[in-house]
Amino acid sequence: MSRQVYLYDPPDRFVAGTVGLPGRRTFFLQATAGPRVTSVALEKTQVAALAERMDELLDEVVRRSGGNAAVPAVAPTEISDSAPLDTPIEEEFRVGTMALAWDGEEQRMIVEAQALVELDAETEEDLAEAEERLLQDEENGPPMLRVRLTGAQARAFAKRALDVVNAGRPPCPLCSLPLDPEGHVCPRQNGYRRGA
């Protein structure tokens, strides 16, 4: 079966968002173009890592171009997006592997999110080889979301994604674990319940 690639070049909208209450949220990447909407589920840590790496890559592009790249230093307020995810949210797949690249000719950030795949391997070498084959197989690999963004769109995505990640439960000031509204059993307090 051939690989399904959900291509958005360019998207009308590309955002990270959540469904559910803090502590029980499901994170999504959502790309839209006209009536087409693609939503893929991923972990909170993946959203945070993607946003941080996007900012780092954009900073590097600006540094290497001597400030001549069409990349703003911060997210432009005129294209900020705080609207909720488009509904209905239908998960196409759960993200396993993500990749970022900068297309210098087109001045575009390329974001790829590939479906989670179980690999059978006997040794670490077999696993590394299977992962490499999977990443290189353009025709028969798992489903993939591929989005091409301008520098401004990428900055706006990264800012919103970090805001979404940070909008969860506040951390305990002692142990940094998330605080539930009812409190939590703090390991630094030797098991005593700590209120929110």
Estimate what percentage of residues fall within beta strands.
25-35%
> Tell me about the biggest sheet?
7 strands, mixed
**Chain-averaged pLDDT:** 87
- Low-pLDDT windows of residues: none
Task: Calculate Rg over CA atoms.
Answer: 19 Å
> Distance between termini?
51 Å
Indicate the multimeric state.
single chain
Short descriptors:
alpha+beta; two-stranded antiparallel ribbon; seven-stranded mixed β-sheet; 26% helix; 3 helices; 196 residues; single chain
Provide an overview of this structure.
The protein has 196 residues and is an alpha+beta fold. The chain is 26% helix and 29% strand. The protein contains 3 helices and 9 strands. It has helices at 44-65, 124-136, 151-166; strands at 5-8, 13-19, 26-33, 36-42, 91-103, 108-115, 144-149, 184-185, 193-194. The strands form 2 sheets. It has a 7-stranded mixed β-sheet with strand order 1-7-6-5-4-3-2. Strand 4 (36-42), helix 1 (44-65) and strand 5 form a beta-alpha-beta unit. The radius of gyration is 19 Å and the shape is globular. The chain starts with a strand and ends with a strand. The model has no long low-confidence stretch (mean pLDDT 87).
In short:
The chain has 196 residues and is an alpha+beta fold.
How do the helices and strands line up, and which of them pair or pack?
Elements: E1 5-8, E2 13-19, E3 26-33, E4 36-42, H1 44-65, E5 91-103, E6 108-115, H2 124-136, E7 144-149, H3 151-166, E8 184-185, E9 193-194
Helix pairs in contact: 1-3
